[in-house]
Amino acid sequence: MYFKKIIFVLLFMLLLLYFGASFLYDPKYVIFIKPLIIPLFILYICFDSKLILNKGYYYFVAFFYLGETAMLFLEYSNFFMRTALLLYLFSYLSLVLIAFPFIKHTNFKKTLRGYTLFVVLLNSFFLVLIVFILIEAIPDEFVDFLVLLNALVALMLIITSVLYLCAKNNKKAVLFFFGSISIVFSDIFAALSVYYLDYFALNYIERILHFFGFLLIYLFIIENKKIA
After folding, report:
1. Is 116 within 8 Å of 166 (Cβ atoms)?
2. What are the structural domain ranges in the chain?
3. I want to staple 63 with a disulfide (CB 3.0 to 4.6 A). Which of 91, 117, 134, 157 is the partner?
């Protein structure tokens, strides 16, 4: 369809701008591009695929999109930061609920051993470290509380993705695992660049992880529909 091609071209141009933002203008303005990409992407896949996507995926996208939009007004009021953190928390929960049916009969004690336990502990260490840094840098106590809640739900998402990968060990599980890890760490790098260290490398890594995380979760949803 002609309209689908137009959407694809616009989406491609926005992605080029998204990744090239640091070389063209102040990197902090890249946040104004994100909310434009997500609706175009959803519009494109609606034209590109006749598959009925998981409702949880739409919740994830909606909460994430609203969170990115709230971040646009961050400098005007702490209310928008609080709102964004709450929305990001619900986006994490949406991903957990998507994967839960695949792991609900998993034996946690048998699965969380060896390298799987190491992955969970390593991610837990990084999350605790980042939370400590952010709480020290953010003077708002309620925002600190929301950061802590987000870290706990992010850890829940990581544990879910690890359990899913160990329980199924198939393409769907791999896509969900790397998609979830990418999204969690993209948010970590984004938070660090906003509150602690506004560094070029952090901004760029955050963008790459954000893009691939979002793409991998979509591929997971599509794969889930293809395979019974």
Report:
1. yes
2. 2-226
3. 91
